[in-house]
Amino acid sequence: MPRGGRDLVIHQSEPFNAGPTLDRLVEGLITPTERLYVRNHAPVPDVDPQGHRLRVEGLVHRPLILSLRDLTERFERVEVVATLACAGNRRRELMEVADLPGETPWEPHAVGTAAWSGWRLADVLEAADLRPEARHLAFTGLDAIEHGHGRPEGFGASIPRGKATSPEVLLADRVNGQPLPPDHGSPLRVVVPGYIGARSVKWLARVEARADPSDNHYQRHAYRLYPPGLTAATGSSRDGFALGELPVNSAICRPGDGSRVPAGTVTLEGYALSAGREIQRVDLTADGGASWTQAQTLEPAGQWGWTLWRADLALPAGDHEIAVRAVDAAANTQPESAASLWNRKGYVNNAWHHIRLTAR
Ligand SMILES: Nc1nc2c(c(=O)[nH]1)N[C@H]1C(S)=C(S)[C@@H](COP(=O)(O)O)O[C@H]1N2
Ligand SMILES: [Mo]
User: Fold this and answer.
1) What does the DSSP 8-state code read for residue 92?
2) Which ligand 1 atom is the nearest neighbour of the CA of 38?
């Protein structure tokens, strides 16, 4: 798929990092493939689907080498609607609190919802027959990433065995009814619904059953949540913990921040999501949290998809600051301030999302 002609805001062109305009993000429950955000750490590898082989090895009784045809013939094809969100989604707001040198200032657009299809990782692991000592499943991609030390390595991640054997985790070769485009991991990727996007490894070459989490840079050192106060100058990359499940989050996508709107009833729209939990409520405030209006939540996109919402607020002429927060089925909700969440890599900002509007 050509990269030009898409409605994406480009943060970096090589490696490609881009997300849709917020206005178009919530046009439908399913995000059209050309409007899915792209987060690449290195140039897209050119992988021939026919020649591609997936190795499943490590702590298994029966190591496997699988072509796409083997996957098709041996395993049941399933489709899962899932929202993927980058750990760096909404980082720009954290960068307003304190600088994060070298990091991408993502708007709330590093998120998208698609119908992923392929095979259950659980079924493939059953065929490989995991040994009892296997506690983590590690994934490696075919991209070649330079860290400035040692040889280039493929992007990697791992997830715990319990998640890896859950039915929603896929080895996917299709998205929204079409083969995966190169930017999204052609010909095969992992899709881990409910986890930070970084665990959904693209251009997947290898699944390794291990006793411990992956040693790959992106599992061991990056994508960790650091405690407050730790900066690049203090602490080591063993501080903090490796991120997995996403927290409850929401954002206002329409109207855009800074818009002028006619005074009176203003309709706001956006999304809310929580890792596999139902969104029970979406609250909006125009007075800093003194009073709240409940949004109407539209049909959710299944257990692993986001919930779109819409709310009508009465706004008299003047300047307004509107904030949103969501509440999930476990009563998890979002903290008020981004300042309280600032962390050294700028991950998982789920503070109330604000926009400014001028009504006249
Ligand atoms: N091989 C590989 N897999 C990868 C990445 C990558 O750079 N290389 N980026 C990860 C990150 S950080 C995210 S958020 C998602 C983004 O998936 P998308 O580009 O299909 O939206 O892919 C993940 N999988
Ligand atoms: Mo990410």
Assistant:
1) H
2) 19
The set of residues, in sequence order, having a beta carbon less than 8 Å from that of 227 and lying 6+ positions away, is 239, 240, 343
pLDDT tens figures, 346-356: 999 999 999 99
Please state, in angstroms and rounded to a whole number, the distance separating the CA atoms of residues 341 and 216.
Answer: 26
**For residue 1, pLDDT beyond 50:** no
* pLDDT single digits (tens) 87-113: 999 999 999 999 999 999 999 999 999
Q: Is 176 in the pocket of ligand 1 (CB under 6 A)?
A: no
> For a pLDDT cut of 90, what percent of the chain falls above it?
92
Among 202, 345, 347, say which to mutate for ligand 1: greatest number of ligand atoms within 8 Å of CB. Answer: 202
* Residue among 73, 187, 48, 197 nearest 124 (CA): 73
In the block, tokens 């299944």 appear at 302
pTM: 0.97
Give the distance (Å) from ligand 2 centre to CA of residue 286.
31
Give the up-direction half-sphere exposure of residue 331: CA atoms within 13 A in the CB hemisphere: 0
Half-sphere exposure of 56 (CA within 13 A, CB side): 24
Measured CA distances, 122 to 41, 117, 267, 303, 338 (Å) = 27, 14, 43, 18, 37
Contact of 320 with 76, CB cutoff 8 Å: no
From 286, 276, 251, 291, select the one nearest 328 (Cα to Cα).
Answer: 276
* Residue 284, SS3 per DSSP: strand
Q: Bridge partners of 114?
A: 82
Q: CA-to-CA distance for 351 and 337, rounded, in angstroms?
A: 5
What is the chain's mean pLDDT, rounded?
95
pLDDT, one tens digit per residue, over 67-94 is 999 999 999 999 999 999 999 999 999 9
